[in-house]
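Moderator note: this is an archived Q&A kept for reference. The question asked for a predicted structure of one protein chain; the sequence and the answer are reproduced below.
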Amino acid sequence: MKNIFKTLKDLEDQISCLDESELISLEKAKDRILAKDLYARKNLPSFDNAALDGYAFNYTDINEALEIKGAIFAGDKNFYTVAKNECYKIMTGAKMPKNADTILMLEDEYIEENKLIIKKAPKQYNAYRYKGEELKKGEILLRKGTKLNDKHIALLASQGLYKIEVIRKIR
């Protein structure tokens, strides 16, 4: 009969060390263990944007009727500027126009002859999501030893990481 220590030694010789890592694509990363800390490559969000659908305007114009200049949708690459007594209808995730600092929720809108009249004033900076508000470039993204799930993989993809180092599976 084999000695227990000899049996354990035989087992150790047959499996790879768990410190070994391998580079894999994100498609194969679910349920794998991260081999090293990962850091944010870019700010999240990467630009100032709207946290909800509404009207973007400058808070100094809160008591004025604001001319609606158009609509800004998420993914729109154009640059917009809000002038005095102007606003833009804006969708969640859309880039904030220059000079706008507040969003009025759609539920609080009152439109008359293409002018927005603010009946219920929001707080200044309402629904304004700042660049880097969730994660700043260089901050820890995920820690070594994290078991990767779908949410982690989406976060890595949003940072432009498509190959990652994970602990090699036991053989």
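Archived answer notes: The two ends are 26 Å apart (CA to CA).
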